[in-house]
């Protein structure tokens, strides 16, 4: 299993809908996880971090972590065209390096 | 959000030439990191730097690469003899002392093009 895996997409949702982005991880990745948003040609922008089992909400974003299933998700409520980007899931390997998934491309149509 | 700047924004170089990429954090920092992203591929870890020494490095970070803090604030990545496959976006990332959970904040990146 790859260390951090994501469906590459594209995931297409209409404006106002909920977008659900998923990520699975291997045993080599630690229990701290991060969601980054990356617009084309730009750098990753941290939008959510999660460390404990359960949900964490911040505005329109909710991150969910299930350690037993090794699964992390990001829900975006009331999706806007400006949310169209690639969403990167990342976790720490043993040490100081962040390990990234390949990212899921989200397209929100107006 | 903590700010990190990187220079240059775009560097074009000939194969075999040396390049130096720079990162300048605005606020207090704990760790520095360098990552790269080849076009269309995932973000890859290169090296982490703490207390003026390398903390961890990946297999990508071979003898062609080096990092240093030449003046106590700037953080540089040097590629001694660039290869075509070094063409990528290079991102500096920072963990700040006053932030929790080792959240890494990325600079805007330097696009390196090796001809």
Architecture overview:
The complex is a heterodimer of chains A (110) and B (115). Chain A has 110 residues and is mainly beta. Helix content of chain A is 0%, strand content 58%. Chain A is built from no helices and eleven strands. In chain A, strands 2, 4, 5, 9, 10 and 11 form a six-stranded mixed sheet that branches. A five-stranded antiparallel sheet of chain A has the order 1-3-8-7-6, with no helix packed on it. The N and C termini of chain A lie far apart (37 Å). The model of chain A has no long low-confidence stretch (mean pLDDT 93). Chain B has 115 residues and is an all-beta fold. Chain B has strands spanning 4-7, 10-13, 19-25, 31-37, 44-50, 53-57, 65-68, 75-79, 88-95, 105-106, 110-114. In chain B, the strands form two sheets. In chain B, strands 2, 4, 5, 6, 9, 10 and 11 form a seven-stranded mixed sheet that branches. In chain B, strand 4 (31-37) and strand 5 (44-50) form a beta hairpin. Chain B is globular and about 40 Å long. The termini of chain B are far apart. Chain A binds chain B through residues 32, 34, 36, 42-46, 49, 51, 88, 90, 92, 95-103, and chain B through 1, 31, 33, 35, 41-45, 48, 50, 55-56, 58, 89, 91, 93, 101-109.
Summed up, what is this model?
The complex is a heterodimer of chains A (110) and B (115). With 110 residues, chain A is mainly β.
């Amino acid at each position: 299993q790859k260390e951090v895996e994501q469906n590459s997409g594209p995931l297409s949702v209409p404006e106002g809908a909920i977008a659900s982005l998923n990520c699975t991880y291997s045993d080599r990745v630690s229990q701290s996880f991060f969601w980054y948003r990356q617009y084309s040609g730009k750098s990753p922008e941290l939008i959510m971090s999660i460390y404990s089992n359960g949900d964490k909400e911040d505005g329109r974003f909710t991150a969910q972590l299930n350690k037993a299933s090794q699964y992390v998700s990001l829900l975006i409520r009331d999706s806007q065209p400006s949310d169209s980007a690639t969403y990167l899931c990342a976790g720490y390997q043993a040490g100081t390096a962040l390990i990234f998934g390949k990212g899921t491309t989200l397209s929100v149509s107006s | 959000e903590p700010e990190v700047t990187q220079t240059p924004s775009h560097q074009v170089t000939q194969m075999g030439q040396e390049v130096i990429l720079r990162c300048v954090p605005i606020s207090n920092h704990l760790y520095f990191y360098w990552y790269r992203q080849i076009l269309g591929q995932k973000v890859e870890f290169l090296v982490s730097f703490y207390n003026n020494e390398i903390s961890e490095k990946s297999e990508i970070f071979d003898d062609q690469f080096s990092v240093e803090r030449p003046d106590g604030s700037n953080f540089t990545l040097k590629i001694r003899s660039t290869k075509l496959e070094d063409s990528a976006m290079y991102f500096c990332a920072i963990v700040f002392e006053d932030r929790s959970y080792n959240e890494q904040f990325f600079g805007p990146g330097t696009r390196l093009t090796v001809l």
